[in-house]
Amino acid sequence: MDVIFDLAQNVVDTRYEDLPQEAVEIAKKFIIDSIGVGIAGSSTPGNAETIRMVEEWGGKKESTIFVYGFRVPAPEAAFANSLFIHSPDYDDTDDRTATHANVTALPAALATAEKVGSNGKAFITAVTLGVDLTCRLALASHLFHGWHTTTTVGIFGATAAAGKILGLDRAQMVHALGIAYSQAAGNRQGREDGAATKRLQPAFAAKAGVTSALLAQRGTTGAQNIMQGQWGFFRLYHDQSEKYDPDKWAEMLKNGLGTRFEGVNLAAKPYPCVRCAHAPIDGALELVTKHDIRPEDVGEVTIYTNERVLDTAGRPFVIRTDPEVDAKFSIPYVVAVALTKREVRLEDFKEEAVRNPEIADLAKRVRVVVDPEFAGSRSVVGPIKIATKMKDGKEFSARVEFAKGHLHNPMSEIEIANKFRDCAKQSMKPISEHKIEQLITMLSELEQVHHIGEVVALIT
């Protein structure tokens, strides 16, 4: 029997009471983090036009779009809110696979929960299970060859989360995941080309997750042997450089299923840019703090890392069609910002800031190279080394083992709350400080919420 039956059974059977307290607390932490980032994402250039299109489509008023406040069919709300969460590139990451987990599962669960009137405990459970499935698939599937893992596996997490809220039984859940498999997609070319589709792809997955669960609830069938079947996910999607081993990957998916929830391994982002740029930022901030470096005195900066980091964000900084995306995926740019401003914030990725000639000039003096020590590593969070050579001949260097936010260098609850407050300041519509504090408190005590609509009302 295909492993998808075990995965579906776990989603169906797991109750809130079955979740370890650590899993609940971590889920709430990242719900706070994700919603805060989503509020900031409401003002990302280009998103307003997309949301107006969704509004023009109309439809049944089931679920609410963050900040804008109007209601649309649940799949469209999941799409819009996922788009907002991913737009600032500030959402959580599983550092083992560079997968963003909540961006698909959370908006799918939220839209469905609002549609049916679920409580906080049901919402926490659905998000926890959706995130767990997303992370497990990312770990087991070996998708490095061109797939955008967040989207490609995130559709299954979104479907599981929505299906849990709807109360699907095992047969329905398997069909829902089979329907989702027919839509599993997402690639890295948008990122390569600096296109806005990079932030749209998880939104497509969140929307498809809700749609798949709703179709299964109404009796639509999907393929059932979707992982280990002749044309299952493992065969079609895995990196061809990896030996095809579906039984091994199935065992990886089931390892600790129902007792270990992979959301506890997520990292929160302290900087709104690609995760592999975080360790270089940490190193740059350490150097400017320790040695009082002034950007005008810097001759050149070298970041020593691995091939994956170099390929993802290590090329010379160039502005193409979307300055924000280009900046967020450029280690030279973010290191130049860190050395100049001694911080890296959301404001640093607005087009006016990205086109700052002083930052651009310093970015030209930042190069990223592969160090033999790190060659072959797949890590996106360190270790890295940074070396600065000053114009007067002095040299300073630092080493970062784990980027800020990693399990071994985590962000505290206070830091997450402050990040939320900072994100809220970037909302497309002003949100009062009182409302922000109400929202933080309510999300911190989410298991006590009787109707998820109470939360949604504070995000508008």
Structure notes:
There is one protein chain. The chain is an alpha+beta fold and 460 residues long. It has two domains: 309 residues, 2-methylcitrate dehydratase PrpD; 126 residues, 60s Ribosomal Protein L30, Chain: A (2-Layer Sandwich), CATH 3.30.1330. Helices cover 52% and strands 7% of the residues. It contains 21 helices and six strands. Strands 4-3-5-6 form a four-stranded mixed β-sheet. Strand 5 and strand 6 form a beta hairpin. Helix 1 packs across helix 8, helix 2 packs parallel to helix 19 and helix 6 packs antiparallel against helix 12. The model has no long low-confidence stretch (mean pLDDT 96).
What is the average of the pLDDT values? 96
**Helix fraction by DSSP (H/I, runs of at least 4):** 40-55%
CATH class label of the largest domain: Mainly Alpha
CATH superfamily of the largest domain: 2-methylcitrate dehydratase PrpD
The CATH topology of the largest domain is: 2-methylcitrate dehydratase PrpD
Number of helices: 21
Q: Poorly predicted ranges (pLDDT <50, ≥5 residues)?
A: none
Any idea how many domains?
2
For the biggest β-sheet, the strand order reads: 4-3-5-6
* Overall morphology: globular
CATH architecture of the largest domain: Orthogonal Bundle
Element-by-element helix/strand order: HHHEEHHHHHHHHHHEHHHHHEEEHHH
Strand percent estimate: 5-15%
Q: Determine the structural class based on helices, strands and strand pairing.
A: alpha+beta
Distance between the termini: 46 Å
Question: How would you describe the oligomerization state of the chains in this entry?
Answer: single chain
| Number of E strands | 6
